[in-house]
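Why do we bother with a discrete structure alphabet at all? Because it lets us treat a fold like text: something you can write down, compare, and reason about line by line. To make this less abstract, here is a complete entry for Homeodomain-interacting protein kinase 2-like. Read it the way you would read a sentence in a foreign language you are learning: slowly, and without expecting to understand everything at once.
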Amino acid sequence: IVEQHVLIHSKCDSYRVEKKLGEGSFGKVVRCRKLDTEEIRAIKILKPKPNAGKAEIKALKAMRKLDADKNNLIKFYEGFNYKGHTCLVFEYLNESLFDFFVHRKLFPLHVSEIRVIAQQLLVALDALKSIGLVHCDIKPDNIMLVNHESQPFKVKLIDFGNAMKTSTLEMVKRIQALGYRAPEVVLGLPLDEAVDTWSLGCVLALFIRVITQLHGLPEDEVLRRGSNVDTFFTLTEDSGWTLNTKKEYKRLTGNAVLEEKCVDKYIKSFDDLPKLYPGLDDPVEAKDTQAFMSLLKRMLHVNPAKRITPRQALGHHITVLYLPLATF
């Protein structure tokens, strides 16, 4: 049903398929035109599997309590079944941050640009927290530019296929894409909405060309609560918790540790990260970068109980003082 010019019908509306936008394990996304108004829509067409889209629709219905535009969340219009496929109709957005970053050949963004993105996504996370919802899959692919030409760096959070109520997180063992996975998920610790803050921190770090594997050893009280801790750490009487060596990890899991390729030998901690960022001879840029790094450190705290919340981050001076808020 995704061929060009094919008509897709819901109970209320009809849509003409114009082009395929992407596909994945879930199914395909197509750009369509709503016949009665000529408005452009994006329709997510799921593979015909049992319960396909059930969790996502539940999350999207819960989000109807929120103003999608005000809270930088994709606007959901309707869901329906067509020829055995669950179809979800959304507003059409321009381009993912992943594609945008690739198109600029991975060149880092300026702090002023990252700050605008951060502020909008922190608003989105704060809104989700207010209704007890956790996205669980924040990554550049799931952050869309609305229209970069007319509204530079106006973004919205998309894809709630893995979203869960905070109260049900204890029932899952593995969430989030690997590069954006919070340490408490890896270690089997109790989970809450702080996992989304971690993922967002990783995304922002990516755009400033930062290595996110620089957070230090988790505290003893954190490690004691984890169900997967023995895979990565060993408790000794003399020195307490120590990180397992590559050989020990392979012996315990049967998996070899991949060699790191991108870590700069001069970068040993977060405080060294501004060395990677261009243009720091400008005192204003340097000051903003240091402020951004201070926020990033708090978003990427290894202890989720001490990690900054979205509401607290929105009060951080990098988001409210140095640069004027974007108006969209």
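What the structure line is telling us, in plain words: The CA atoms of residues 136 and 162 lie 6 Å apart. Confidence is low (pLDDT under 50) at residues 210-214, 321-327.
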